[in-house]
C-alpha cells in the first residue's frame, strides 16, 4: 500500500469488516544483539575471522586423528580468544541497550478513554493522541492537532535533526486547533491519510478528513503540520498531536545510515600477512611430508628392527597415511599463525581508547565535556588520515551571530556601546553625535525596516534564564531586565533585531496581525498584511505592512545578489559590502492604494491555488519584489572557534588536505574560509559555480584544469556549489577529481547532506584509496560522518545526532590537531610494531620445530613440551608487547604537536609496508636458526654436559632452545622500546623471571594427571650445567648484537626526521625518559648518539 490510514485516537469505523493496518511499535533499537541471539550471532561473526576459523579447524583435526600435540594446545587459546572478544562486544552492546532503554522508557502523556494517562515512550501506538509540554522532545512523528495558542501554532527547534538551531513554526488544521481540552479531543472524529514512512525530513504529503455535524471536511497536510521525533517544543506551553510514524519508522530513525562495520587499514594488512603465513605453513607441512616418504623409501628407515609395524599399519591405504601425516605436520607447525594476536589487538584497542578520554588537553572546560570514543577499532586510523572533510557552521564557527556594522544610505556605521558611529570618527565624538544622526528619515526608516522585516517571536517568561543553561538561546543579551527573550528562525535575524533594540528601535511584540515597535521610547503599531517567506531560490524575505498613518509599505531583506538587481533608487554604488561578514541588504517599496489592491489579489489567488501553487507564488513574489528603494546593508559576523586557523595550518603541514563542505551560501563560505586560513590571501581561487548544463560544466572544468597546468607555481583553491557539483559528479567525475587533487584547498557550498556523503565516497573510492576523516556537529553531517573512514562528531550547541553516529566525539575543532598528530601517531606506531612483532616471535617459535624434524626422521616428534606450546603465547611473551602497545611513545607529545611534518613519516601505512614485514620475518627465521643450531653445536656431538658425566636427553635440548627463545624475544622488544615506565620494566623482567619460576615448579613435581612425566627435573638439571648457561648467554648476544649495530649505523648515516627530533628533544644524550641504553661514542665524529632503538 502506498499510503497509511491513521484513525485519530484509534476510533476505527463501526462496520464489521475493517481490518486495522499493522504498524511498528515506538521502540528505538540501536543495539546489535539480544539475549537470545548473542551467542550464535557473536560466534558467527568471530569465526568469520580467518585466524579463528583456522584454529577451529586445527582443533577439530587434533580431536579426530592421532596428532603429536594434545587438542588442548590449540583449544585453550582459541577458547580464551573467543571469550575475551565476546565479553568486550557484549559490554559495548549492553551500553547501547542501556541508552535505548533510557529513550524507550521515558515518561509520556497519552489521551486514552477520556483522560490523560502517563505511560512509557515505547507504548505509544500509531493513532494515539500524545501531549507534549514545553522543552520536551517529541516521542514520535506527530501531526499537530492543537496547541495552547488560539491560532493553533507552535514553535519547534530541530537542532538535533538537521543542525539548525533556529525556531520553526508549525501549524494545525483549523478544525482541530479548537480542541484544546482532553474532552474535546475525545469527541474529535478525524482520519489522517499520509504516505508511507520515508527518510526525507522536509517532505510529508497527507490529508486529514474531519467529520463535523455529519459532513466531512478535507484539509491538506504538509511538512509544516508534522512534528518530528527528536525535535524540541519551544515557547509553547503544550501541544496535542496524533502519532503517525513510530519507532524505527520515524524520520529520525530512517535517517540513521545503518552503521556498517568500519575496518582499519592495519586490520587489512594483518589479513594479508596471515595469508602469507598460511602459505609458509602449508609449504613447510607439504615439504616435511614429502621428505618423510623420501626418507622411508629405504627399508632400514621404513621399518627399523626396534620399531616393527603392526598388521593394521602394513595394510592401511598409503593415500590416507599421506593425508594423516600431512595433517599431523600441520598441527605440529600451526603455531606459526598467532591466535593471540587478535586478542592482544582487541585489548590494545579497548584499553588504549581510554587515553583519549583521559587526555586533559582534549577536555573543554566551559561545557565540561571530555573527548569520547564510540568505536575503539579505528584508533590507528587516526594516524593515517589524508583528507579531512569539515562542516562550517558550528564546527569551524561558534554558530553565534554578532552585529558588527551597517551601511545606511551609503554611509558606513559601526556599533560602539549601543550607539551607531559613522566610520572614520573617534568613538567619543561619534557617541556624542550619534543621537543626532539617527533622527533623519533614512536612518530611522532603515532601523524600522530591520526591526519589522523578520519572523522573530518573543518570549516573556524568565524561568528558564534564571535556572541557567536551561535554554540554548539564553545568552546574555543586554535586555534581560525587560524579561524579554527573542526567538528567531535564523541566528542572523536574532542578532539584527537585538542590535536595533540596543540602538533604540525595539521590536516589542506581535499580537495576531499587529506588530509593535518602540522608537526611542515612542510606541508605534503596524498592521501585518502579508509575509513573503524566505526560500533558498529567491534568497530574500519580505513583509507588507500598513503604517500607523495608513500607507502600505513593503520591507525586504536578503543576500546582496538577490536584492541589488531589483533596486532602482538609493545609494547602490556606495553601499559598500562588508568584507568577511554575512551581509544582508535591506530595501523598501511604497505602494499606492491601487497597486496594493492588485498585489493583494495576486497573492491571495496564488496562495489558494491547488495546481502549481509553488510556481504561481514565485511569480507573484517576483512581481511584488521589484522597483525597490535601497535603504542600506547590515554586516553580521559568525564568530570563529578559537585556534581554528592554527589547527588547519597544522593539518596542512602534516600533509592532510582540508575540504570544507557547507550548506551555507557562497559569499559567506568564502569569507569564513579566508578568515580561518583554509584559503590564503595569496591563493588563486578557482570557481565552478552556477553551472546549468553538462556541456557548460565540462567546458569550465577543462578551463580550470588548463589553468592548473599553466601556473603550477602558486597554490590554488577551488569553490564549488551543490548544483554544479551534482553535474560534475554525474558525467565528469575523473576530470573533477583531477582538478580537486591539484588544488590545495577545496570549498563546497550549498551542499545537501547526502551530497556531502557522495563527495566523501568519491574520494574514498578514487584509485589512490586515501584514508578520509569527516567532522561535523549537526544531523546534516551524519551521512558524511558515517561514510568516511573515521567520523568525528563535535559536541555543539544543540543536538547529539552527530556525536551519536560518530566514531570519536570532541568538544571543539581545535582538538582535532592533537587527536591526529599525537594520539593517531602513537596508536599507529604501537599497533604496527605489535603486529610485526607477533609474527616475528611466532616464526622464532616454530622454525626450530621444523628444523628438528630433519634430525628425527620426520617422525613428528615435538621439540617442546605441550605445556610450553600452550603457554608461550598466552603467558611467557604476551604481557611485554601488550604494555609496549599501550605506552610506547617514539617522540615526546609536545614535539609531535609542534612539528606536524612528523605525521608524514607514518603516512600511507609506511610502517606496515612489505619491506618492514619482510625484515621482521627474515629476522625471525635468522634468530630461529641461531637458537636451534647454537644449541645443536653445543650438544650435538657430546651430551655429557654435567660434571658427573650424566647425559642430556631430547627434552633438555628442546628446553634449552625454548629458554634461549623466550629471553631473546623479550629482549628484542626491550630494544624496540623508547619510553620506559615502571610497567614496562615490571612485565619485561617479570616475564623472564616468571618463565624460570614456572619451569622449576612444573619440572620439580610429579603431576598425577599428566600421562607422561617427560619434563620431570629436566629444567633443574639443565640449569645446573655451567656450559648450558654459557650457551644461553652466547646465543642471545649472537642474535641481538647485529641488530644493535645495524640500528646505530642507520641512525647515524640515514636518520629519519622522527629520529632527528628525538635527539633534539633529548638534547643529544637521551634526556627524555627513553631507552637511551647504549651511548656509543663514535670516535670519528666525537659526538654522543643517544641510542634509542627504532
From TrEMBL:
Organism: Amphilophus citrinellus (Midas cichlid)
Subcellular location as annotated: Endomembrane system; Membrane
Membrane topology recorded in Swiss-Prot or TrEMBL: Multi-pass membrane protein
Name by which UniProt lists this protein: Phospholipid-transporting ATPase
Domain of life: Eukaryota
Domain P-type ATPase N-terminal as annotated: residue spans: 20-74
InterPro entries for this protein: ATPase_P-typ_cyto_dom_N, ATPase_P-typ_P_site, ATPase_P-typ_TM_dom_sf, ATPase_P-typ_transduc_dom_A_sf, ATPase_P-type_domA, HAD-like_sf, HAD_sf, P-type_ATPase_IV
Protein EC: 7.6.2.1
Entry-linked PROSITE patterns: ATPASE_E1_E2
Amino acid at each position: 500500500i502506498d499510503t497509511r490510514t491513521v484513525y485519530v485516537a484509534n476510533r476505527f469505523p463501526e462496520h464489521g469488516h475493517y481490518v486495522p493496518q499493522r504498524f511498528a511499535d515506538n521502540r528505538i533499537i540501536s543495539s546489535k544483539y539480544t539475549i537470545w541471539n548473542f551467542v550464535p550471532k557473536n560466534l558467527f561473526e568471530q569465526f568469520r575471522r580467518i585466524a579463528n576459523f583456522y584454529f577451529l579447524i586445527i582443533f577439530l583435526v587434533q580431536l579426530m586423528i592421532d596428532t603429536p600435540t594434545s587438542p588442548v594446545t590449540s583449544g585453550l587459546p582459541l577458547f580464551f580468544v573467543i571469550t575475551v572478544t565476546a565479553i568486550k562486544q557484549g559490554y559495548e552492546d549492553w551500553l547501547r541497550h542501556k541508552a535505548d532503554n533510557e529513550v524507550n522508557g521515558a515518561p509520556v502523556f497519552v489521551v486514552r478513554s477520556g483522560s490523560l494517562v502517563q505511560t512509557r515512550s515505547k507504548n505509544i501506538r500509531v493513532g494515539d493522541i500524545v501531549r507534549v509540554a514545553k522543552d520536551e522532545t517529541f516521542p514520535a512523528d506527530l501531526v499537530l492537532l492543537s496547541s495552547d495558542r488560539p491560532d493553533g501554532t507552535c514553535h519547534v527547534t530541530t537542532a538535533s535533526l538537521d543542525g539548525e538551531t533556529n525556531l520553526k513554526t508549525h501549524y494545525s488544521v483549523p478544525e482541530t486547533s479548537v480542541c484544546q481540552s482532553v474532552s474535546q479531543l475525545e469527541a474529535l472524529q478525524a482520519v489522517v491519510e499520509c504516505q508511507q514512512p520515508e527518510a526525507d525530513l522536509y517532505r510529508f504529503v497527507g490529508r486529514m478528513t474531519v467529520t463535523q455535524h455529519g459532513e466531512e471536511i478535507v484539509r491538506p497536510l504538509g511538512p509544516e503540520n508534522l512534528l518530528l521525533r527528536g525535535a524540541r517544543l519551544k515557547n509553547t506551553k503544550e501541544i496535542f498531536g496524533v502519532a503517525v510514524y513510530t519507532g524505527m519508522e520515524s524520520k529520525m530513525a530512517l535517517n540513521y545510515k545503518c552503521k556498517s562495520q568500519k575496518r582499519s587499514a592495519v586490520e587489512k594488512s594483518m589479513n594479508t600477512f596471515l595469508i602469507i603465513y598460511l602459505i609458509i605453513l602449508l609449504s613447510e607441512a607439504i615439504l616435511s611430508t614429502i621428505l618423510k616418504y623420501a626418507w622411508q623409501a629405504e627399508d632400514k628407515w621404513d621399518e627399523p628392527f626396534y620399531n616393527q609395524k603392526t598388521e593394521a599399519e602394513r595394510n592401511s591405504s598409503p593415500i590416507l597415511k599421506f593425508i594423516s601425516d600431512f595433517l599431523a605436520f600441520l598441527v605440529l607447525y600451526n603455531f606459526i599463525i598467532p591466535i593471540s594476536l587478535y586478542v592482544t589487538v582487541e585489548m590494545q584497542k579497548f584499553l588504549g581508547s581510554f587515553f583519549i578520554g583521559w587526555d586533559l588537553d582534549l577536555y573543554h572546560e566551559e561545557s565540561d565535556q571530555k573527548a569520547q570514543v564510540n568505536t575503539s577499532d579505528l584508533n590507528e586510523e587516526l594516524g593515517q588520515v589524508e583528507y579531512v572533510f569539515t562542516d562550517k557552521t558550528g564546527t569551524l564557527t561558534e554558530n553565534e551571530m554578532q552585529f558588527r556594522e551597517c551601511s545606511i544610505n551609503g554611509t558606513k556605521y559601526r556599533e560602539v556601546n549601543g550607539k551607531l558611529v559613522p566610520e572614520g570618527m573617534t568613538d567619543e565624538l561619534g557617541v556624542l553625535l550619534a543621537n543626532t544622526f539617527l533622527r533623519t528619515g533614512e536612518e530611522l526608516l532603515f532601523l524600522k525596516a530591520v526591526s519589522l522585516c523578520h519572523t522573530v517571536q518573543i518570549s516573556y517568561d524568565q524561568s528558564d534564564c534564571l535556572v541557567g543553561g536551561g535554554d540554548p538561546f539564553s545568552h546574555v543579551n543586554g535586555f534581560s531586565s525587560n524579561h524579554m527573550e527573542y526567538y528567531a528562525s535564523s541566528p542572523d535575524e536574532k542578532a539584527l533585531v537585538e542590535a536595533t533594540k540596543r540602538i533604540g528601535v525595539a521590536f516589542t511584540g506581535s499580537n495576531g496581525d499587529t506588530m509593535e515597535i518602540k522608537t526611542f521610547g515612542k510606541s508605534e503599531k503596524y498592521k501585518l498584511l502579508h509575509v513573503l517567506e524566505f526560500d533558498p531560490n529567491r534568497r530574500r524575505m519580505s513583509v507588507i505592512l500598513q503604517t500607523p498613518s495608513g500607507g502600505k509599505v513593503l520591507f525586504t531583506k536578503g543576500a546582496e545578489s538577490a536584492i541589488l538587481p531589483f533596486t532602482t533608487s538609493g545609494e547602490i554604488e556606495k553601499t559598500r559590502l562588508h568584507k568577511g561578514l554575512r551581509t544582508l541588504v535591506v530595501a523598501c517599496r511604497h505602494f499606492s492604494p491601487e497597486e496594493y489592491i492588485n498585489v493583494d489579489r495576486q497573492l491571495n489567488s496564488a496562495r489558494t491555488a491547488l495546481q502549481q501553487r509553488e510556481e504561481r507564488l514565485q511569480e507573484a513574489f517576483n512581481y511584488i519584489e521589484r522597483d525597490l528603494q535601497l535603504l542600506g546593508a547590515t554586516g553580521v559576523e559568525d564568530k570563529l572557534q578559537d585556534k581554528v586557523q592554527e589547527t588547519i595550518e597544522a593539518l596542512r603541514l602534516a600533509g592532510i588536505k582540508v575540504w570544507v563542505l557547507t550548506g551555507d551560501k557562497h559569499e559567506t563560505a568564502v569569507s569564513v574560509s579566508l578568515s580561518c586560513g583554509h584559503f590564503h590571501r595569496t591563493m588563486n581561487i578557482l570557481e565552478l559555480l552556477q553551472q546549468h548544463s553538462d556541456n557548460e560544466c565540462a567546458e569550465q572544468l577543462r578551463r580550470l584544469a588548463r589553468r592548473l597546468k599553466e601556473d603550477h607555481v602558486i597554490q590554488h583553491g577551488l569553490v564549488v556549489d551543490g548544483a554544479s557539483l551534482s553535474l560534475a559528479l554525474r558525467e565528469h567525475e575523473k576530470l573533477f577529481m583531477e582538478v580537486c587533487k591539484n588544488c590545495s584547498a577545496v570549498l563546497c557550498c550549498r551542499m545537501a547532506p547526502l551530497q556531502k556523503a557522495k563527495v566523501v565516497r568519491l574520494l574514498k573510492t578514487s584509485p589512490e584509496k586515501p584514508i578520509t576523516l569527516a567532522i561535523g556537529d549537526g544531523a546534516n553531517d551524519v551521512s558524511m560522518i558515517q561514510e568516511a573512514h573515521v567520523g568525528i562528531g563535535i559536541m555543539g550547541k544543540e543536538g547529539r545526532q552527530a556525536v551519536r553516529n560518530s566514531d570519536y566525539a570532541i568538544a571543539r575543532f581545535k582538538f582535532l590537531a592533537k587527536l591526529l598528530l599525537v594520539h593517531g601517531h602513537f596508536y599507529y606506531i604501537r599497533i604496527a610494531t605489535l603486529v610485526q612483532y607477533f609474527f616475528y616471535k611466532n616464526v622464532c617459535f616454530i622454525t626450530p620445530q621444523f628444523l628438528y624434524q630433519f634430525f628425527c626422521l620426520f617422525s613428528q616428534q615435538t621439540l617442546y613440551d605441550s605445556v610450553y606450546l600452550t603457554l608461550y603465547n598466552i603467558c611467557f611473551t604476551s604481557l611485554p608487547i601488550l604494555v609496549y602497545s599501550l605506552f610506547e611513545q617514539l617522540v615526546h607529545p609536545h614535539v609531535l604537536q609542534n612539528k606536524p611534518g612528523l605525521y608524514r613519516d607514518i603516512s600511507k601505512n609506511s610502517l606496515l609496508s612489505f619491506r618492514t614485514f619482510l625484515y621482521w620475518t627474515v629476522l625471525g627465521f635468522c634468530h630461529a636458526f641461531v637458537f636451534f643450531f647454537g644449541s645443536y653445536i653445543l650438544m650435538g656431538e657430546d651430551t655429557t654436559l654435567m660434571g658427573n658425566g650424566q647425559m642430556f636427553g631430547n627434552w633438555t635440548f628442546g628446553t634449552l632452545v625454548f629458554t634461549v627463545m623466550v629471553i631473546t624475544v623479550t629482549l628484542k622488544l626491550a630494544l624496540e622500546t623508547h619510553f620506559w615506565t615502571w610497567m614496562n620494566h615490571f612485565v619485561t623482567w617479570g616475564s623472564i623471571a616468571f618463565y624460570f619460576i614456572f619451569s622449576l615448579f612444573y619440572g620439580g613435581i610429579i603431576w598425577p594427571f599428566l600421562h607422561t612425566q617427560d619434563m620431570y627435573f629436566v629444567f633443574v638439571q639443565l640449569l645446573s650445567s655451567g656450559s648450558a648457561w654459557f650457551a644461553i648467554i652466547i646465543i642471545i648476544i649472537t642474535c641481538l648484537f647485529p641488530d644493535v649495530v645495524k640500528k646505530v649505523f642507520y641512525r647515524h648515516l640515514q636518520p629519519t626526521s622522527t629520529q632527528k627530533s628525538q635527539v633534539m628533544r633529548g638534547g643529544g644524550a637521551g634526556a627524555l625518559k627513553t631507552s637511551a641504553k647504549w651511548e656509543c661514542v663514535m670516535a670519528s665524529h666525537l659526538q654522543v648518539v643517544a641510542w634509542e632503538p627504532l
